[in-house]
């Protein structure tokens, strides 16, 4: 999958060649779970980034050999998506769980410390389970979208960003959900860590594994919804329903990532947000454009890259996704002047929208567009994190909705929400104007979102 590797065939092949995919899955899963186990013991603040970087490397190494699934939930999703036969799914799953089990034993033997997977106090199981379900679904969806899709990864011109997009999901999920659930996102890791964990009421390994396998089904379902046109072999671009679903799902994922990081006062919030946005853009850019931001949509509409009717529908569905995310997020507050907030929100939203417009221009596809867009969110988030750092009306809306659960009916909350949104929309309008100014070469072709 990750490298568009064909499913292993057993007919008329030398033993070494036929066994290579299975060895690759075992070794890759062992290395990944061992790294997750080490991080669970050492609890390094930037551990999720290290694990994400490792996954990027493993994908590019083992992808051409086995597909580099390295996760039973992903293997099941690949079977549901019709990418590999079920006998291969079963073989991979057994090998991955075995590798996770051995990695857990090895890590316990090295450190002689308890590991296990469990909600981090004071959070309860269902709060942790929701994040494991959501982010494992995100992982599966991104994997299928950047590797299995015939339009996003055509066999005649495969993309070069699949490993990067997949690793960035781990970065986003680890920094957001790690302090709450541990963010293993992998049944092999959940079971492997439980080998050296506590027994009894505090042993959640099997429960986590079940939730993550369920996410494999959900991720495959989301993939089919987003790319129904590929399964039906329809000509032309994706349906409006598929576009709206991508914007809804993408906005929900981004707002949840940002909101959870904010509630945990994470120093990695901008990095996690940028990683989430990059992976989302990589996974759905060829369906909806991956706006997941009303300000970007406004800029695209004003620039003629998105029809007005579609833009209005995008904004509405993005706010719905933000509303859904906001139900689980906590309130925010700021202690800076409105002039400071106006400056950072308008300027950095303008940068984000302008880069989005520019990297979508050109005669053909490029591999850097997702990381370029995500880096803008990281840049703006870091630079303005002490003041506001939201840069997205959908995120503002989701945070305001969550705050309303504690202070419903507060006039200042509605005013703050409206002000932030207007500042960011102004940034989108400014980006559209700047983009039109610099497009002074009439023969440049642009891709429509």
TrEMBL record:
UniProtKB keywords: Membrane, Transmembrane, Transmembrane helix, Transport
This protein's record includes keyword Membrane: yes
Protein's cellular compartments: Membrane
Q: Which GO terms describe its molecular function?
A: channel activity
Name the SUPFAM superfamilies on file.
Aquaporin-like
Ranges in coiled-coil conformation: none
Could you say which protein family the record assigns here? Belongs to the MIP/aquaporin (TC 1.A.8) family.
Tell me what this protein is called: Aquaporin
Species this chain originates from: Cladocopium goreaui
């Amino acid at each position: 999958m990750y490298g568009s590797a064909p499913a292993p065939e057993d007919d008329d092949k030398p033993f070494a060649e036929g066994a290579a995919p299975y060895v690759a899955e075992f070794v890759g899963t062992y290395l990944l779970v061992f790294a997750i186990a080490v991080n669970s013991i050492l609890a390094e603040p930037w551990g999720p980034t290290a694990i994400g970087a490792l996954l990027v490397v493993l994908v590019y190494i083992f992808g051409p050999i086995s597909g580099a699934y390295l996760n039973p939930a992903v293997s099941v999703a690949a079977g549901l998506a019709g990418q590999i036969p079920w006998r291969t799914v079963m073989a991979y799953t057994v090998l991955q769980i075995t590798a996770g089990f051995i990695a857990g034993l090895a890590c316990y033997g090295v450190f002689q410390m308890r590991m296990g997977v469990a909600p981090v106090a004071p959070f309860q199981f269902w709060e942790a389970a929701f994040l494991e379900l959501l982010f494992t679904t995100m992982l599966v969806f991104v994997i299928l979208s950047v590797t299995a899709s015939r339009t996003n990864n055509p066999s005649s011109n495969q993309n070069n960003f699949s490993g990067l997009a997949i690793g960035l999901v781990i970065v986003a999920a680890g920094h957001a959900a790690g302090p709450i659930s541990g963010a293993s996102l992998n049944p092999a890791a959940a079971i492997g860590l439980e080998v050296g964990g506590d027994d009894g009421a505090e042993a959640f390994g099997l429960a986590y594994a079940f939730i993550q396998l369920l996410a494999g089904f959900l991720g495959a379902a989301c993939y089919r919804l987003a790319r129904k046109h590929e399964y039906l072999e329809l000509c032309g671009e994706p349906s409006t329903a598929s576009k709206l679903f991508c914007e809804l799902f993408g906005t929900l994922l981004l707002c949840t990532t940002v909101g959870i990081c904010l509630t945990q006062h994470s120093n990695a919030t901008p990095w996690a947000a940028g990683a989430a946005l990059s992976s989302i853009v990589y996974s759905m850019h060829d369906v909806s454009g991956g706006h997941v931001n009303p300000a970007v949509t406004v800029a695209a509409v004003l620039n003629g890259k998105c029809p007005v009717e579609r833009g209005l529908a995008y904004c509405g569905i993005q706010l719905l996704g933000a509303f859904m995310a906001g139900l689980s997020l906590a309130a925010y507050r700021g202690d800076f002047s409105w002039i400071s907030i106006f400056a950072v929100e308008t300027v950095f939203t303008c940068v984000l929208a302008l880069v989005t417009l520019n990297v979508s221009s050109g005669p053909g596809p490029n591999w850097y567009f997702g990381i370029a867009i995500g880096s803008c969110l990281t840049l703006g988030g870091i630079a303005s994190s002490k003041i506001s750092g939201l840069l997205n009306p959908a995120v503002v809306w989701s945070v305001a909705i969550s705050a309303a659960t504690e202070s419903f009916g507060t006039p200042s909350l509605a005013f703050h929400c409206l002000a932030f949104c207007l500042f960011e929309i102004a940034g989108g309008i400014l980006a559209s104007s700047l983009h039109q100014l610099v497009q002074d070469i009439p023969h440049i072709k642009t891709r429509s979102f």
